[in-house]
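Please decode residue identities from the backbone states below.
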């Protein structure tokens, strides 16, 4: 039994949910999202709540049951509140700015790195903080990870792009041997 899958999902007042065949379509104030549901799982709407239950038993039914419930819950939160990830740039001369709706990073390479705008995602830059926001949690996380991967934080000086609040374990540099120790 899935503990997560058993919990009903409450539908907010300003959200409209439809189930067509094996797809859940959710419309809210921030936009519309849809998610395809696996055949092992059944999704029903009863009295302003979404109930997720297993259709047939397979080895992975419980895992898909909890996963499906969480994905539908994330879609509902996305169309009502939205999601955002914040990244921080650290390093001398490292900076980011917007050219139109595209993000341009200058992070120590011989050329600036341009990240094209993806539909449903918005970038904003304040000093050394890059904010990636949108209604699709999966897409926001994927774009933020792609930005971080351009110049991940290095362990000696800590330079690079990291999530806000991320701790980077620092390593000690080489020890200097003095002439007296010989």
């Amino acid at each position: 039994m899935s503990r997560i899958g058993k919990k009903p999902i409450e539908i907010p007042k300003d959200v409209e949910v439809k189930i067509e065949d094996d797809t859940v379509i959710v419309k809210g104030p921030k936009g519309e999202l849809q998610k395809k549901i696996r055949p092992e799982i059944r999704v029903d709407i009863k009295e302003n709540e979404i109930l997720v239950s297993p259709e047939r038993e397979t080895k992975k039914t419980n895992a898909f049951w909890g996963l499906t419930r969480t994905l539908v819950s994330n879609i509902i939160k996305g169309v009502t509140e939205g999601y955002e990830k914040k990244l921080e740039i650290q390093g001398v001369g490292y900076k980011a700015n917007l050219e139109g709706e595209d993000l341009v990073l200058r992070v120590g390479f011989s050329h600036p790195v341009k990240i094209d705008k993806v539909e449903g995602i918005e970038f904003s830059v304040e000093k050394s903080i890059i904010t990636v926001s949108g209604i699709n949690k999966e897409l926001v996380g994927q774009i933020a990870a792609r930005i971080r991967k351009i110049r991940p934080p290095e362990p000696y000086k800590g330079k690079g792009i990291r999530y806000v609040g991320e701790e980077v374990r620092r390593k000690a540099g080489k020890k200097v041997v003095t002439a007296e120790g010989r």
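Observation: DSSP finds three helices and 13 strands in the chain.
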